[in-house]
């Protein structure tokens, strides 16, 4: 079985990925960079819960009072 | 059985329905198709509807459409409604529909017509929609004047709750100008007092689009507009947000033609109101609605001297059916 820590990148077919790894200074640094992102974002759902108001539950209709009920039925034939 | 509350409007130009999460809006054209074409149509992701051994597709270019009142209780009207509502049935389990539908203001007080509409629509239905056999019953039909939908959409949210706590607004008079494809309704309405004066003009957007077509052909004969196979309706759609008409033979400036026809139509609406004795001062608001109101809003605002009471309803195309839905929820207390 192939060693999961062995990585081969084809500079031609995987040009974008190759450039990214190169810009980060090597595979380990690139993985660390991505890992940092992962750490920051994995808890984002629970974090935004504290700072963003969640949408209210779907508003339930209030009971229609008799005045509104009668108005509606005067229009409907 | 699952019950659906639906506001719907089967008009000359389009079929619209609103049921909270369920929405339909498409050009109201039914085309019968041959059984041998079914596989090709399905491959092209066309919806196929089978009713009583015949097959249909929906949508396409708007035809002339009948302006006759008898269309509201015709077999065709029933078939159009049947095919539309079948799209809202989720699976092969039978569902129930309680619907509120609209008619032009001049028909809303005609008990004979309303009875015919109800008798025509209340029934059990079966439609095979893209190989799914759907069954439903229309158990209740309520009929209202189309502009009542706009008034209700203006006063209540879609759950039926009042948008304002000020109940005095219920007794105020509103003038609704509903500019549709086949008719223009000028209707005085109050939520508590009901329908006041109403006039239905047969001049409507179908005339505007055909006049626009003719005027462009007249001013730019070299454009050979009629040989492009663009219909008047498509032409209007192309020019809603655009003053340049791009055709294979070149680009043509048509802003001034549009503006002058819109001005002419708006002036005609205002003079029809004057001729029929409407007194603008008594209205709390003058609400513009219907697909045509989007095109005519600017011109109408001008002919009303930029009066602040003249407003364009939010979502003019769906405002009526959303209002019907609200009415249905209030009336059925659901």
Q: How would you describe the overall organization of this protein?
A:
The complex is a heterodimer of chains A (77) and B (334). Chain A has 77 residues and is mostly helical. Chain A is 56% helix and 0% strand. Chain A is rod-shaped and about 75 Å long. In chain B, a hairpin with a 2-residue loop joins strand 13 and strand 14. In chain B, 33% of the residues lie in helices and 30% in strands. By secondary structure, chain B is of the alpha+beta class. Chain B contains nine helices and 16 strands. The two termini of chain B are 16 Å apart. Chain A binds chain B through residues 59-64, 67-69, 71-77, and chain B through 100, 108, 111, 114, 142-145, 148, 152, 156-157, 159-162, 167, 170, 191-192, 194-195, 327, 329-331, 333-334.
Mean pLDDT of chain A, rounded to whole units? 76
Number of strands of chain B: 16
Radius of gyration of chain B: 21 Å
Class inferred from helices and paired strands of chain A: mainly alpha
For the largest interface, the chains and their residue counts are: A-B, 16 and 28 residues
Number of DSSP strand runs of chain A = 0
Low-confidence stretches of chain B: none
The total count of helices of chain A amounts to 4
Low-confidence segments of chain A: none
Q: What is the element string of chain B, with H for helices and E for strands?
A: EEEEHEEHEHEEHEEEHHEEHEHEH
Quaternary: heterodimer
- Order of H and E elements of chain A: HHHH
Largest sheet of chain B: 9 strands, mixed
Q: How far is the first residue's CA from the last residue's CA of chain B?
A: 16 Å
Q: Which geometry of chain A do the CA atoms define? A: rod-shaped
Summed over residues and divided by their number, the pLDDT of chain B gives a mean of 90
Q: Biggest sheet of chain B, strands in spatial order?
A: 3-2-1-7-9-8-5-6-4
Strand content of chain B: 25-35%
